[in-house]
Recover the amino acids of this structure.
């Protein structure tokens, strides 16, 4: 039986959905509702009756439930939206009886009764986890324990892309595809069939690319930025160890997901 996880705005803001769904899902309170005193909101750091982002108050709205075969502790670590189809994609940990420990589900934001799980291949254990969407190509690139796969059709059937049997630990799509693996340091950049390694001396836990194609990444010593210009040295932005994830919005602004909230990286 599938377990349901309610999707509310406060949950969706956790990670990747921030990138493309905020303008679609959050209704800006241009006129402050009766339960919110906008003048008070502007003065206070925190807002307990809404979602406050850069001094703008957004309403909470429960959209629907995610009907996926969640395990005992439903956790969604990554989300993103295919803008052309308005489908939400998200990672989840399935039930303990499932041989795979990570899957990717999907649901239509317009027609929530259309939902499912991206299937693997019978006899294989893919453990699909890190993924990113190429909005121009309308493709979803997915990493897992068996290399990189791609979904480019409405049936959500994955096709093999490459890098088997590498374990892909993170993945991002911008001008090119970037990814990390469990066995190697640095970030690999896929260019015309070749793989170019960046930051080869650094173990990368998570990473994103900002508007200027600079790499913002997490490792064991904190949060760093590696500039696109080779003449600039990497700069440590924070020594904080409780940053759980990174994401970017449509403008390329980076946000860090911390245990007590979301912070803009400037």
């Amino acid at each position: 039986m599938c377990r349901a996880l309610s999707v509310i705005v406060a949950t969706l803001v956790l990670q990747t959905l921030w990138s493309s769904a905020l303008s679609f899902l959050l209704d800006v309170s241009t006129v402050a509702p009766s339960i919110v005193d906008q003048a008070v909101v502007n003065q206070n750091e925190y807002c307990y009756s809404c979602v406050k982002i850069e001094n703008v108050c957004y309403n909470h709205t429960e959209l629907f439930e995610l009907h996926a075969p969640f395990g005992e502790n439903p956790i969604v670590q990554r989300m993103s939206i295919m803008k052309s189809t308005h489908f939400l994609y998200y990672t989840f940990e399935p039930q303990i009886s499932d041989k795979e420990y990570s899957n990717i589900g999907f649901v239509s934001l317009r027609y929530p009764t259309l939902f499912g799980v991206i299937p693997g291949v019978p006899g294989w254990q893919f453990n699909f986890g890190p993924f990113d969407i190429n909005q121009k190509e309308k493709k979803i690139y997915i990493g897992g324990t068996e290399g990189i796969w791609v979904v480019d059709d409405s049936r959500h059937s994955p096709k093999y892309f490459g890098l088997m049997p590498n374990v892909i630990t993170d993945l991002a799509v911008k001008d090119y595809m970037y990814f990390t693996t469990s066995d190697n340091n640095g970030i690999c950049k896929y260019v015309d069939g070749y793989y170019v390694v960046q930051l080869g001396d650094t173990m990368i836990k998570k990473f994103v690319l900002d508007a200027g194609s600079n790499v913002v990444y997490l490792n064991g010593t904190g949060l760093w930025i590696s500039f696109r210009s080779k003449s600039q040295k990497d700069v440590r932005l924070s020594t904080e160890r409780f940053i759980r994830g990174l994401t970017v919005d449509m403008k390329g602004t980076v946000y860090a997901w911390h245990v007590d909230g979301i912070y803009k990286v400037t």
Notes: The first strand starts at residue 3 and ends at 8. Confidence is low (pLDDT under 50) at residues 7-41. Residues 176 and 191 are 7 Å apart (CA to CA). Residues 205-266 form one domain.
